[in-house]
Please model this.
Amino acid sequence: MQTIYYDLRDTKGQQKEIEDKISAAAKILREGGLVGIPTETVYGLGANGLDKNAVKRIFEAKGRPQDNPLILHVTGPQWLPRYCTDIPPMAYVLARKFWPGPLTMILKRQPIVPDETTAGLNTVAMRCPNHPVTLAIIREAGVPIAAPSANTSGRPSCTTAQDVLEDMDGKIEGVVDGGPCTVGVESTILDLTCDPPRLLRPGGLPLEDLERLIGHVDVDKAVTSALKEGEKPKAPGMKYRHYAPKAPVTVVTGAPEASAREIERRVGPASGVICFDEYAHLFPKQVVQTLGPSGDKLMQAQRVFDALRFFDTSSVTEIYAQCPDNRGLGLAIGNRLKKAAGFHVVEADSHRVVLGLTGGTGAGKTSALKAIQELGGTVIDCDAVYHEMLEQSQEMRNAINEKFPGVFGKDGKLDRQKLGQEVFAKKDRLAQLNSIVFRYLIPELERRMESAGDGLYAIDAINLLESGADRLCDRTVAVTAPTELRVRRIMARDGITEQYARLRISAQKADEYYRSKCDCELANAAETAEAFQEEAKLQLAKLIETITEEKRHKSQ
Model:
């Protein structure tokens, strides 16, 4: 079979020629053929998603397992009712904000969508790509386009038309060249058939952006570890070793300096290295591919598949890869690297243990934090850090002032009363303030720990889970206590009435919330703060020992 190459990179060329090429690609798709198509994330291998025979050809061309579902690409939310049922209002909220763009939503499917597209699931993945060429092809074809990444299954994804030809020349009817992909990693996949929504695959739309719009999103275990044998994937990219070059990959996580030094300690003359620009000089005898600066995650996303593909033509016997942190696009980049490595991960910061403590007022969190200090740990009070940043972080101040004009006086000082009146009267305004604070607070917490180096840390935050600070922690710990004990403690501590103490407790989340969301629980039924401090010290010492042992095994 001859694969026809359609070059549409020059969008200023002859309009008639462009339209003819789009029509030709659409005709191939309508007639059951396969076409490599550009999107902002990666190149897709497209077929008519309603034609089961055409969809079968995708699996054959890629060598893709049949239980790996495909994404249907459409031109906008107006197409959703044609192929989906029981569509939640949240789907339209998300589509208005993020479509066209790198967001795929899992919804219940209509019978018109064949089993071959959904891998037999009763759900279907829907996306509107942000690329004018592919949107034009979908409109011209008049059918939704099923399009997984256009690589041979298991290989790194394609970010240029030449990558597609390398894998698919002679197997498919056409390739449309729309230029290099601007995002570089696949779309974010969000399951809307459950409550709360669940992140099935991190991608070009950061988790933080989703949570700023719709609140908390659960993260599926497949994001950070491999599915077990026999588990059926609900979305593309969840199950199989993916994005992998021929040589085995080891991913090294941790602070950039620490992960670079860990790789330097491990490499030999036949090793390949994927690293941030700043650390390439450490590997003069190795074959090196750089991801870009350690602080530029967009560039890292654009380069990660090129780096992995490069090593397919190299003679290296092993590859070590630096991994960005999990914030923003880092979660998606790290996920792709870890899947390329079959989740073979080494933690460079093996001597740092971070615990996150949270719980309601009067539960005994202060005593637990004192226990951590007695164990040699450093307590990071998120509330104190926030107030420091209000004075010192001009970026955060500007972001707050933009959303809440006038809360900073002419002298530059925050009018706390004015801000308080603004946010506590309306829940949506409080959520807006929190989203700004969390956006700047989390990187500051990480920076402080990295600057201080190895050791034991405790992050003290009432909003530990909501802020995303839990992602910095090795374990999250819920400090809980019976309501009557909390009432008595608050009354004695703050000199308030029983009625007011109960009101304060009722205004906060119940212990069950913290208990269900955290990794561990410190239940405080002790009669005195001192007694609980000793109990907490014993339990926390055992927990720290467990974490330290886990890190030691990972680094071997």
The chain is about 40% helix and 15% strand.
